Amino acid sequence: MGKGSRMKRIISIWLCFCLAIAAAFPMGENLISAEAAQTNLPELLASYPLLTDLKDVSGNGRDGKAVGNLRYYNGLTFPGNNDSSTNYAELPQGMLDGQDTLTISVWLKNRTGTGNYAAMSFCSPVEALTDSPNYWLFVPSNPKGLYKNVFTNGVNAKEPFRTEVGVIEGDTTGLERKWAQYTVVLTANSISSYLNGNLVGTAEKSRTTTDFGQNLLVYLGRSGYAKDQAFAGSMKDLRIYGGVLTPAQIQTAYEAERAVYDFENENTKNEPAGVTEYIPQIRRATDASSGLSHPGIGMSADQLETMQRHVRAGDEPWLSGYGALINNPKAALNPRLFFQPDNDIFIHIPGPWAIEGYSNPGEFVSQRCQMDSLTAAHQALMWYITGNEQYRRNVFAILDNFALVESAVDHTDFRFGDVVYNLCFAAEILRYTECDNEELQWTQEDTDKLTGFMNIVHKFYDATWFWMNQHSFNVLGMMGESIFTNDAVMYGKAVERTLVNTEGEHGGRNGSVKYQIRKVEKNDLTGEILKEPNIQLMEMGRDQGHAYGNLGGLSELVASIYAQGTLVDPEEGTISTAANAVNPFEFQDDRLLAGASYLAKYHLGYEVTWIPADSGVSSSSPNGIYKSINGYPWKGNLSNYYGIVYNYYKYIAKADMSQEKYRYVADAYESIMPEGASGDFIGLSTLMFTPEAAAADGISRKKDFSGDTKTISQTEYFSALRRGTAEVMKEGDTTFVRANASAAGTEFVIHHFGYPKKGLVALKVRSNGDAQIRLGCQEADHDPAAVFEVHNTGGKWQTVFYDLSKSENTAASMVYYTITGNATQVDMDYLEFDPAQALPQIKEIHHEIDVLSQTQKDGTVKEYVAVGEKYQTKVVLADAVEGVIYGVQGLPQNASVDKTSGVLEWTPGASQAGQEFTLRYFVEKNGAVSYCSRNVYVYDSVYGLLAECVKGVASGDYEKQSAEQFKSAYSAALAEGKRSCATAAFREKADALIQAAKNLKYLMYYFDFEGNSENEKRMSKGLGKEALSLSGNAEIIFDREMESYVLSLDGVYGTFAQLPQKLLEGIDCFTVRMYVKPTEDGRIFSFGSSEKSFLDISGGSSQITSKIVKNGVSLETEKSLDNVPADEWYFVVLEVTPATLSLYKNGDLIAEKKDVGVSAREIGENLSVMLGQSFSIEDDNFKGCLDDVRIFCGGYRDDFRETMYLDMPKIIVKVPVHPATPPSKPSTSTVKKVTLNVTKATVGVGETLDLKAKKTPAKAKTTYRWKSSAPKIVSVSKKGRIKAKKKGKATITVMSSNGKKAVCKITVKKAPKKIEFRKKSLTLKKGKSTTLKVKLPAGTASRKLSFSSSKKSVASVTAKGKVTAKKVGTAKITVKTYNKKKAAITVKVKKR
Question: Is there a contact between 516 and 539 (Cβ–Cβ < 8 Å)?
């Protein structure tokens, strides 16, 4: 409730009740004159608000005094204790002397529970450790849970409690940890108790306060007996009157005070678990020499106090953030620790070298040290929030373990930086907070222990060269140590290394804010300079787990700098006090925010732009370029790393979080808050970094999806609209998403989502037409998890169903909805898992007469029928349901359906041939509808049906036996189909044909490394449709010389490409061919099972050889002496038969081994095929590039040898492409002739020319292969573009796939240094024309000349230099060569 609303409520109550009575309740600014109070109420002896002190605000000056550890936190707070001699408050002695009539009223929040203790008392003075025989006290909840209010009614010095009289009734156990008003009324002969304005009871007594004597002691939080338990809890608004308030006045007071303090709201807040009454206080300090503030590692003193105050008050979002803390095992009261004090590798930390029992002992130690250091950080937070000493004790135990470390071998282990930061974070809290327990005070010895450990491991993290997110770990160590030890120089380094890290590499591996959240200005793959820079979080190119780690580490570092109040240079990232200095969040135009926003935008499902950029894996190799975002793992996962950035910009910078710059971070954080702990960093940003200003917002957008039986509102989880049109709508109380379903589709994302693995899912929809709704875990081009068919619902909401048990793609935190249709409007209300009303469900569409059918990739079923053949189906339900209505939408002409039985009958006519019909079967009952579709294509004859059976079988090379079986099956199916296609016999033959098609043994793989995606680039374009896998640093890059993508290998063991398993197993004759550009020699191609049995091609630049090895016996070809310069492309072919191994280079046989006597088949089984690596670690891996790798079954015919460089495989068995209609005339699609648009050309060095091939006949299908006879002089691309490289001559050959050739002879001259017109001026009469002549220096050429006119209205010029005079005047004609050399001539136009 806001302050203004609260004040209105107070005033209203005051007006409703007697003004004079209200005057008796002073509330700071609401005090009413004492004169009015004295005329209506007893004398107010004292009034204590107890909000910030023990001052009496009645004007009587009876101020109290605190004894022990009392705190003012939402009232005067008592920690409690086992005896009453500590932690209590005293009111002035004697203030109640002779006061026989009293009214005492106080608000309490009792945390003591039930027991013998006193919240308030007064008594006569006694000696220490003895009990006064004269006392009054009240207990909020005695051992039986009753409100106790008693007065000693006699004198018994030894056992005064035996004289107690009073009221002991009213169950108060339900008021534990809740605010309640306790009122006591004492008269000369009675004692009464009131609870929350209501009378609990009254008892008679005979003694009075006067009988107790003089100098009475008045206590809050204790009794007069020192051995009694002390009160634990809070007090507010204590009032003591020197007379009796009536029951009506007491009730009025209760109502007024309840309104003022808003106790109803206070009591609805969740009490934080584990919190004690002890409230640790911070001792702030600033080091004079360094200027560093304490506590100030990760959190400032203000941030710590804000966190503690709001958690203890039960305020959101701090309370939920605290919940995330206590749910972490590291925050347990007895946490598990991993440091092993009795294990020497923890005392003398080794490197990553083998020790018996440990593959990497250094990492074994550092991981466990990291976990314990994070536990220390969590325990320190728990201590400061709860005041429970055990947490503080646990931190000391962890720090003592680390003090046992005596030495550490120097090696690269980045985790120790994180270890030191976490330990310093915990130690900082302990060092600068108070603790009553002397054993747990921070001492200089504790500082020395931690400093000693840091001195040992400092060498691990004082480094600037660690890669990406690892850099953050190191800087965290520098940050923690520098602040803890007040080292200003080290702190300055930590700040600069966080933001820029000038000492590190200025590229991919630099882990600073500037370089990891990089402003990319160039495409590092192509060299292209960008028009606009793109800011991207670099480690997203590696994977999403490390990307989040990057953001987490940098955010924690920036938070530490901010906590110190440090300003930095906005570009250099160094500490600065200049006028333009900024805080670290604002460094380089809010660079940290830009990185967080980029990450959030991607994981919310929006499109983001990624520019290929250097990752720093290898500074001199293209292997280190991240070409795209790697969505693995967790694409769509919103993790615990946005809170620091969010809280700064929303509450401190006061940014409009709906703006583009901020909204993705806001949407991500607000969707997942509170943020919990992380694996590598402390995290917990909701708890630790939420500023005071957030209290008004609470935890406004927290979402919870935790089960697989939830009903999910599309509107609540609607995230990113990726394409099309969709918006959240509302009709009455119903909100829904409305999407326009077009052919291109509308795609949006539902976030914070999860699929059950099995069971039905129901979608409530409304549509004005036919549409399909695909729910996918990835973008629309991937297989969906569920497909809903939606049809015209006539303006009514319907529920449609999908069975997820048949889908394997169901694990996602982000789901893509893709809605397609024909200008259809689709409304979606909610999605329900395991719906209770899911019937009726269609089990299957049963065919009374067999038909050919295929299930498509999207899950739809397509069927094929022929004209004149009967088509008959019946809808079968999963369970018998009465009262359903059957129907079919899209029913063809002359088809019928029985609404009661679900039987459809149809005989396609001749006019329906060539058409596809979508039959939408449905069953409906009480608004619940199930759909099932079949697409039926009508062929005019059996040939069309058979074409469908063998669809996907291309004309090509196949193993002979499988090809013959296929042709036999085709003939049998054709013969049966000519009799009738609507028979079981035909279906049997058709099924046999389909199986024969599947059994065709293809024998060609073709890898050209081209494609629109990484997967497509790795896919074989031959008949084998499998992909190769890349290992190590192998990658596919763009090669400028080839003007295509190629396979790049770096020569390091473990870097290779793995071809499909068993690719060549059992084959005696095959041919391998590829383009090779070697940098260093190594194994180019290997085929086998081990280093004792294999076949390979090796070499590269110095020589080429091949050998076959069986059981260690090697048969090797003669080595080629035809050296090839490094880094130049050439063409190599290996032909393998049982008799010979033959090697060809650029079409020429260069090495051969005859009488081999060992066939490839004999090498073994389960064989592997690799590019770039052999089966022995001792062999060199190939370094260089490979392209256009093809593997054929069989060898080459002699007459093809001269052309195999241009790709002419031997045909083993040619499988024809089967027609969809009866065959007519023989095909004439073979290429008869190939011609070129240019057959002879002279060009200059550096000039390009596009050659175009033309085939005869024009309808013939072919591919072309281009070749240059002298690539060093003239190169030619796969598309026929030539480029002149140096002076000389070359012949360009183009060849069709069946061997038809055409050539173009190219002469290359020097590039011209100038160009001139043969005339210096030209005069023409209007209407006349002439062709200009130019001259170039001797020995130069420019085939391409471009002409232009300064005034086309006076004189125009054609591309060939023909000038035409248009009107009288003067114009300048300019000619330009391909290399931009120019000349000009003035043309004057006269009258005729």
Answer: yes
Q: Enter the tokens of residue 1259.
A: 């309808």
Measure the CA–CA gap between 3 and 205, rounded to whole angstroms: 45
Q: Which two tokens stand for residue 13?
A: 């109550």
Question: How crowded is residue 203: how many other Cβ atoms within 10 Å of its Cβ?
Answer: 18
Residue bearing tokens 């020790």: 355
* Helix ranges (DSSP H) in 1022-1151: none
Q: What is the pLDDT confidence band of residue 679, given thresholds at 50, 70 and 90?
A: confident
The phi and psi torsions of 266 (rounded to 5 degrees) equal -60, -40
The model's pTM is: 0.58
Using CA atoms, how far apart are residues 1273 and 1276, in angstroms rounded to an integer? 10
State the Cα–Cα distance between residues 267 and 7, nearest whole angstrom.
20
CA atoms of 317 and 699, how far apart (whole Å): 5
3-state secondary structure of 235: strand
Question: Which residues share a beta bridge with 1071?
Answer: 1135, 1192
Q: Report pLDDT for 93.
A: 96
Question: Predicted confidence band at 742 (pLDDT cuts at 50, 70, 90)?
Answer: confident
Amino acid found at 701: R
Question: Which single residue is written with the structure tokens 């787990």?
Answer: 545
Mean pLDDT value across residues 433-443 = 90
- The 10s digit of each residue's pLDDT in 192-231 is 999 999 999 999 999 999 999 999 999 999 998 888 888 9
The answer to which of 553-562, 702-711, 823-832, 1340-1349 has the lowest mean pLDDT is: 702-711
Beta-carbon neighbour count of residue 731 at 10 Å? Answer: 9
Alpha-carbon distance 1136 to 1094, whole Å?
Answer: 13
Contacts of residue 242, defined as CB under 8 A and 6 or more positions apart, other chains included, come to 42, 43, 44, 45, 99, 101, 102
Residue 1158's pLDDT band (boundaries 50, 70, 90)?
Answer: low
CA neighbor of 950 nearest in space, from 921, 971, 925, 975: 971
Partnered with residue 936 across adjacent β-strands are 863, 917
Per-residue model confidence (pLDDT) at position 1223: 42
* Region label for 1079, one of left (φ > 0), alpha (ψ between -120 and 50) or beta (otherwise): alpha
Q: How far apart are CA 702 and CA 713, in angstroms?
A: 15
The CA distance from 812 to 604, in Å, is 12
What is the phi/psi pair of residue 761, to 5°? -130, 135
